[in-house]
């Protein structure tokens, strides 16, 4: 008895505890992240509490919460918030549905499987910048595919999608086009782990394809789907390149999401204090929505 | 193997068309001359295929069939430089990211320790910060440190995105691996040894996938590149390409450039998709 | 031929063209002495030409010029660099940005150049005026163009049974003709200057108000001058815009165009009229580049001017650097923005030759080579005179551009005008809001 206990304690001395090992690995990285990420964040916070002027000499004046109050009372901010919500919802739903579809389709054995997989993965290889250009050329009536097809059919209509009514949808399609393959491949990877016998059992129980999908296919996917829903929420809310290239926030402010507006306020108009205050609202929204998703969905998945 | 039902074939065809259509629209433009791109209504297919744009963007003139010369692009210098820098940045970022992230994700997913959730949330917070909001502070900080217009500067910034992001993706993956730590410890393996020689080989497909994700992030990063290295000797491909949109536009060369940027990641993807397909080897019903 | 070889060859030709080699011919000593690099930045336009120009300087004068281009939102990226005191010595700037940078305390005016008297003597007076602020000439001529001269697609125009005799003489007549052309079956007769860049819709408004005879703001006091009088220039401009927008003759996507898309849209031949850059007459008339090659012209000045002066300067920064390096900056700027070591306006002439960029220097504009060059670019020989006439009569919005807040007002205008169209804004309210904005900007900067 004593010897065993002795041996155990000796082993422990040689071995790091979980905590020590975690600290050894994690601390340097986290410290580095803190330094690199926190500095700009703290700097932003400082700007958010100041009025910064460049003309007639650089000056910064402490103004308390004034910038935050201005943001909240600015109708433009609330408009951009609404655009962000609309875009994020559309983009995330499309991305997840497409991703699920990609995973399910590619999971079927087929000839040239690896070729199809590579082709379907291609959109993720295209930068958001490139995707923005592609969709701009595709969606404009002047250069777009719909006009070309109609013209070949002898019609003279010029469908224009770059309008206040549909620009957000064009952006959502563009962003889901690039993001969906990533989701699709993680779904595919998870599908590969579902034992075939489960499907055999389902067949014996004479489940309909929908029931099979719901009871056999979906459960092991749910955690992955949750993770990627939150990832695509974050990516959609942060999205900048695509909007910058595709619509530049327009027409008017029809596609000015908060990220785009932030760029405009801080970078074009050099309204640094106001922009910094706004960036904290955006950060709050991003964190808030992922937290909310975790509370209503993620928490349950972890229990599985 | 049973034959495919028509539904499946149709769905697959739609998926392939959806994935390729925007790219093909650019392939078509890359082969057109400028007047053809500017024609209205637009033609679906180019009237003649010419390779001039692909040649021009690398700094060479091209003789067209009718004898006229399509001259080298003024952006060629930036494009070549950008290509070179993008390769360097992406490879370095990928390597560093993997070295940092694999142990980090492992620790977070497999071990229990105090403050785990706090630290995990700190990492995830970094994912949530929109680049636009830290652009100006980063810029100011970089000017003071002399990092504007340098490759190390850009690499550091890219890491602030890739590290938290890939960590997030890998945590779920590591969680699904079979619990071999206890066995390893009984066999007298140290923790580091366990990680490097037992976990890593087991997780290699997940690690490979994470690597390509890190690579793609660095390869396609545009916002920071635009502000920090654009127009300097450290320019990257996306920043260099944006020059085609200026006041002397050339959509055909622009399209050719974008297509070329897709090739390296597509090759990587081609060789990696085998791993993608068999990524989660663990039985989830454990 | 490889680009680099071309550069070397161009430089070699430049050398050979000098009769006795430059050791004898040198007029001014423009050779740098500090051994430090001079940082030269600009936006992306014909970068191959700029590179070979810079190379020529580096070869001939043993210079160390580091040239690179900047993309994205140029004025704000440059402002960032200037604020951060990044490595930057010579840069392109529009006059309105130049004034702002000067007020920010980041610019060394051209007055400090040894050749300033010659420079001013050779400069066309309207540009000398437009580019001077606080009594000082801020920079040297990169290009001076008319943005918003009305490009006309003769192919469609003649097909509709119209000829030169029918050319509209002012903006109202132009709009009348747009509707007449539409009645004759042309779906989209006009592509208005409404695109989404910082020099798009806002400048489109400013040029039209200027052409109709109102300076937008007073040139000296900068007080707003627009009125809500229904016959006033601002009101009539907005009323015409509203009518055009409601008639749905202009696709909404124009508001999201960048300049590339804007030029290409007109080059497609889909439209009859469009306010464009004067130098793009060449673009529109080049086969392989445009669908209306050989059939593009611009409207002559009859009752009123067209467009506004769109120009750019080479500015020098006043960042901290050793005296000798500052001297090198001056030498390079003088060489690049005025005359080279042989007393030739090399860069200016080359821009005319390659891209039809007009210069502010009389000696470039009046030269026979320029005449030949323009005649080669236009569709009809007589257009040469039209081009020069339109160019020389182009107004400059001094009241809103030669003032520190010009960029802020510009970005305000861009938002306000696109919203005015999209949300069916009230004309008088919009004008009042614009005037108020000018007044509050004046207050902000104590003007």
From TrEMBL, chain A:
Q: Where is the signal peptide?
A: none
TM spans (from-to): 21-46, 83-106, 118-139, 170-191, 223-246, 272-297
Sorted alphabetically, which Pfam families does this protein's record hold?
Answer: BPD_transp_1
**Membrane topology term:** Multi-pass membrane protein
Q: Show the GO cellular component annotation of the record.
A: plasma membrane
Which compartments does it reside in?
Answer: Cell membrane
All copies of the ABC transmembrane type-1 domain together span: 81-295
Main location per UniProt? membrane
Q: Does the keyword Membrane apply?
A: yes
What this protein is called in its record is: Sugar ABC transporter permease
Which superkingdom, per the lineage?
Answer: Bacteria
Q: Which family does it belong to?
A: Belongs to the binding-protein-dependent transport system permease family.
Asked if the keyword Cell membrane belongs to this entry, the reply reads yes
What is the native source organism of this protein?
Acidisoma silvae
Q: Which UniProt keywords apply?
A: Cell membrane, Membrane, Transmembrane, Transmembrane helix, Transport
InterPro entries xref list: MetI-like (IPR000515), MetI-like_sf (IPR035906), UgpAE/MalFG_permease (IPR050809)
Q: PANTHER family given for it?
A: BLL4140 PROTEIN
- Biological processes annotated in GO: transmembrane transport
UniProtKB/TrEMBL annotation, chain B:
Q: Does the keyword Nucleotide-binding apply?
A: no
Q: Which InterPro entries match?
A: BP-dep_ABC_trans_perm (IPR050901), MetI-like (IPR000515), MetI-like_sf (IPR035906)
Report which superkingdom the organism of origin falls in: Bacteria
Please report the stretch or stretches of sequence annotated as the ABC transmembrane type-1 domain.
Answer: 83-272
GO CC list? plasma membrane
Transmembrane stretches in the record are 7-27, 87-106, 118-139, 151-174, 195-219, 253-272
Query: Which stretch is the leader sequence?
Result: none
Would I find Transmembrane helix among this entry's keywords? Answer: yes
| Membrane topology, from the record | Multi-pass membrane protein
> One biological-process term from Gene Ontology?
transmembrane transport
Q: Which UniProt keywords apply?
A: Cell membrane, Membrane, Sugar transport, Transmembrane, Transmembrane helix, Transport
What's this protein's family per the entry?
Belongs to the binding-protein-dependent transport system permease family. MalFG subfamily.
Role noted for this protein: Part of the ABC transporter complex MalEFGK involved in maltose/maltodextrin import. Probably responsible for the translocation of the substrate across the membrane.
Q: What is this protein called?
A: Maltose/maltodextrin transport system permease protein MalG
UniProtKB/TrEMBL annotation, chain C:
Signal peptide (UniProt feature, chain positions): 1-25
InterPro entries with a match to the protein in the record: Bact_solute-bd_prot1, SBP
Chief site of localization: periplasm
Which cell locations does it reside in? Periplasm
Coiled coil stretches, renumbered: none
- In this record, what's one Pfam family? SBP_bac_8
Alphabetically sorted, this entry's keywords are: Signal
The answer to whether the entry has keyword Signal is: yes
Top-rank taxon, per record? Bacteria
**GO CC terms of this entry:** periplasmic space
Q: Which family does it belong to?
A: Belongs to the bacterial solute-binding protein 1 family.
Name of the protein in question: Extracellular solute-binding protein
Q: Which organism is it from?
A: Acidisoma silvae
């Amino acid at each position: 008895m004593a010897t065993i206990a002795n041996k155990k304690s000796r082993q422990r001395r040689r071995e790091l505890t979980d905590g020590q090992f975690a600290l050894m690995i994690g601390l340097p990285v986290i410290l580095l992240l803190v330094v690199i990420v926190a500095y700009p964040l703290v700097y932003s916070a400082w700007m958010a509490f100041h009025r910064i002027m460049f003309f007639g000499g650089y000056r910064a004046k402490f103004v308390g919460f004034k910038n935050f109050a201005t943001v909240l009372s600015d109708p433009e901010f609330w408009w951009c918030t609404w655009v962000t919500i609309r875009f994020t919802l559309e983009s995330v739903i499309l991305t997840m549905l497409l991703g699920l579809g990609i995973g399910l389709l590619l999971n079927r054995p087929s000839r040239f499987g690896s070729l199809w997989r590579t082709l379907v993965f291609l959109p993720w290889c295209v930068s958001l910048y490139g995707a923005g250009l592609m969709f701009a050329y595709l969606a404009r009536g002047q250069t777009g595919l719909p006009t070309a097809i109609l013209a070949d059919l002898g019609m003279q209509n010029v469908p224009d999608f770059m309008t206040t009514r549909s620009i957000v949808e064009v952006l959502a399609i563009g962003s889901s086009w690039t993001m969906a393959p990533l989701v699709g491949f993680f779904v595919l990877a998870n599908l590969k782990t579902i034992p075939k016998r489960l499907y055999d059992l389902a067949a014996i129980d004479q489940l309909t394809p929908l029931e099979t999908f719901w009871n056999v296919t979906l459960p092991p996917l749910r955690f992955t789907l949750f993770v990627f829903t939150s990832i695509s929420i974050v990516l959609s809310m942060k999205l900048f390149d695509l909007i910058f290239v595709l619509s530049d926030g327009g027409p008017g402010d029809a596609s000015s999401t908060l990220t785009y507006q932030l760029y405009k306020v801080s970078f074009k108009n050099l309204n640094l204090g106001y922009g910094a205050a706004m960036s904290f609202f955006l950060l709050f929204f991003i964190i808030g929505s992922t937290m909310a998703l975790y509370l209503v969905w993620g928490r349950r998945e972890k229990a599985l | 193997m049973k034959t495919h039902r028509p539904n499946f074939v149709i769905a697959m065809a739609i998926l392939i068309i959806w994935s390729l259509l925007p790219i093909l629209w650019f392939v078509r433009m890359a082969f057109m001359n400028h007047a053809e791109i500017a024609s209205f209504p637009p033609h679906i297919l180019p009237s003649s295929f010419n390779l001039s744009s692909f040649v021009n963007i690398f700094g060479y003139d091209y003789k067209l069939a009718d004898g006229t010369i399509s001259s080298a692009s003024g952006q060629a210098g930036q494009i070549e430089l950008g290509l070179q820098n993008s390769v360097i940045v992406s490879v370095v970022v990928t390597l560093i990211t993997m070295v940092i992230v694999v142990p980090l994700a492992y620790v977070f997913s497999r071990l229990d320790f105090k403050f785990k959730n706090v630290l995990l949330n700190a990492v995830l917070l970094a994912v949530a910060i929109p680049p636009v909001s830290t652009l100006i502070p980063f810029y100011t900080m970089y000017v003071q440190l002399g990092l504007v217009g340098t490759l190390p500067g850009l690499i550091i910034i890219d890491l602030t995105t890739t590290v938290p992001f890939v960590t997030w993706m890998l945590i779920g993956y590591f969680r699904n691996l079979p619990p071999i730590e206890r066995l390893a410890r009984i066999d007298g393996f140290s923790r580091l040894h366990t990680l490097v020689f037992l976990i890593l080989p087991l997780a290699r497909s997940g690690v490979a996938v994470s690597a390509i994700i890190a690579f793609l992030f660095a390869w396609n990063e545009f916002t920071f590149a635009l502000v920090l290295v654009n127009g300097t000797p450290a320019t990257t491909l996306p920043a260099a390409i944006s020059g085609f949109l200026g006041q002397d536009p050339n959509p055909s060369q622009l399209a050719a450039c974008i297509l070329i940027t897709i090739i390296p990641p597509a090759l990587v993807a081609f060789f990696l998709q085998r791993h993608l397909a068999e990524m989660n080897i663990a039985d989830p019903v454990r | 031929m490889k680009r680099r070889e071309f550069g070397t060859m161009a430089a070699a030709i430049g050398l050979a063209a000098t009769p006795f080699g430059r050791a004898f011919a040198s007029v001014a000593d423009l050779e740098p002495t500090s051994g430090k690099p001079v940082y030269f930045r600009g936006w992306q336009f014909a970068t191959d030409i700029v590179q070979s120009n810079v190379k020529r300087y580096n070869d001939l004068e043993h210079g160390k010029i580091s040239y690179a281009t900047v993309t994205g939102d140029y004025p704000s990226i440059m402002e960032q660099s200037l604020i951060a005191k990044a490595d930057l010595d010579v840069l392109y700037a529009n006059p309105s940005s130049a004034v702002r940078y000067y007020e920010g305390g980041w610019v060394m005016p051209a007055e400090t150049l040894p050749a300033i008297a010659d420079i001013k003597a050779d400069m066309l007076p309207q540009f000398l005026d437009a580019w001077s602020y606080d009594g000082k000439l801020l920079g040297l001529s990169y290009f001076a163009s008319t943005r918003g001269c009305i490009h006309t697609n003769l192919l469609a125009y003649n097909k509709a049974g119209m000829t030169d005799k029918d050319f509209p003489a002012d903006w109202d007549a132009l709009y009348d003709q747009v509707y007449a052309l539409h009645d004759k079956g042309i779906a989209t007769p006009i592509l208005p200057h409404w695109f989404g860049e910082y020099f798009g819709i806002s400048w489109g408004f400013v040029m039209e108000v200027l052409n109709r005879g109102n300076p937008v703001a007073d040139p000296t006091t900068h007080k707003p001058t627009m009125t809500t009088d229904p016959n006033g220039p601002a009101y009539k401009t907005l009323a015409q815009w509203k009518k055009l927008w409601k008639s749905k003759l202009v696709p909404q996507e124009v508001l999201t165009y960048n300049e590339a898309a804007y030029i290409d849209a007109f080059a497609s031949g889909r439209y009859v009229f469009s306010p464009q850059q004067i130098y793009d007459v060449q673009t529109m008339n080049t086969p392989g580049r445009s669908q209306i090659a050989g059939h593009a012209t611009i409207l002559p000045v009859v009752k009123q001017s067209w467009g506004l002066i769109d120009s750019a300067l080479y500015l020098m920064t006043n960042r901290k650097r050793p005296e000798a390096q500052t001297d090198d900056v001056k030498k390079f700027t003088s060489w690049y923005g005025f005359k080279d070591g042989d007393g030739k306006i090399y860069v200016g002439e080359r821009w005319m030759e390659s891209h039809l960029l007009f210069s502010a220097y009389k000696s470039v504009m009046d030269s026979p080579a320029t005449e030949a060059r323009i005649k080669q670019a236009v569709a009809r020989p007589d257009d040469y005179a039209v081009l020069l006439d339109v160019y020389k009569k182009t107004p400059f919005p001094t009241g809103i551009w030669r003032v520190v807040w010009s960029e802020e007002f510009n970005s305000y205008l861009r938002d306000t005008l696109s919203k005015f169209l999209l949300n069916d804004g009230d004309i008088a309210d919009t004008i009042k809001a614009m005037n108020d904005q000018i007044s509050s900007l004046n207050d902000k900067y104590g003007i």
